[in-house]
Amino acid sequence: MLEVRDLHAGYGKSHVLHGVDFCIQPGDIVALLGRNGSGRSTTAKAIMGLIACQGMVRWSAAAGMVDLVGRKPFEIARLGIGYVPENRDIFPRLTVLQNLLLGQKSGGQRSASAAGWMLDDAWSLFPVLRERAAVQAGRLSGGEQQMLALCRTMMGNPQLVLIDEPSEGLAPQMVQQVARFMLALRERGVAVLLMEQKLQFALEIANRCLLMGHGRIVFDGTPAQLLADATLSRQWLEVAG
Ligand SMILES: Nc1ncnc2c1ncn2[C@@H]1O[C@H](COP(=O)(O)OP(=O)(O)OP(=O)(O)O)[C@@H](O)[C@H]1O
């Protein structure tokens, strides 16, 4: 469904991605792992059209196969790819409900056959959001803001969602809720690309993992394969919880 080939991107003269290759299939939860600064967020920004890039990013949308390179972020969102950036990107002065309804407007078209993601889905996965529906998003705790950011993106009805460091700064109980959220997405056939620093969290929920190093994918396999190779972790990952 998403095929990334020979992707190059960076910031001005700083070349960060040096030919990234990977694929994501429907219902996959793929963890993109690597040391700090290895280029995980840059990969997400390049796929979303937020920074200039070269290479190929093929996406099978409802209308057929399209190349995303050179498209604008709003077009990419409408084609069915959601993005939850590390800073969560919610509107702090709007209420929880207003944030969710805005998310509905920014996403792709709902097909007649697909029920799509509804407010009730957000409420049932994260009941605290319903309780706080009329509260300004800026007044929520960090964990609640993360829940809101995840649900807001889902209101756009993406088939693939790129989630950057969702566990960052969250209490362990909240991290478990985020994990349950991702497993609920998989049940609906939504694919996830998870940029994560916490190895244990990522490997518990992912069915595949990619390791980034030197601006490329240096490993693509299952969590079990990664865990079986201590050299890989030593070489490409920091010790992470
Ligand atoms: N806006 C920017 N301008 C210039 N350089 C940047 C910018 N954003 C990131 N970089 C640099 O690009 C490299 C890759 O950063 P990126 O954020 O993609 O890494 P990461 O793997 O997501 O790790 P982290 O979680 O630490 O951000 C780093 O060297 C970083 O300093």
From TrEMBL:
UniProt key word S-adenosyl-L-methionine: no
Pfam families associated with the record: ABC_tran
ABC transporter domain segment(s): 2-239
Alphabetic keyword roster: Amino-acid transport, ATP-binding, Cell membrane, Membrane, Nucleotide-binding, Transport
Keyword Lipid metabolism appears in the UniProt entry: no
GO biological process, one term: L-amino acid transport
GO molecular function, one term: ATP binding
Family: Belongs to the ABC transporter superfamily.
This protein's name: Amino acid/amide ABC transporter ATP-binding protein 2, HAAT family
Organism: Lampropedia hyalina DSM 16112
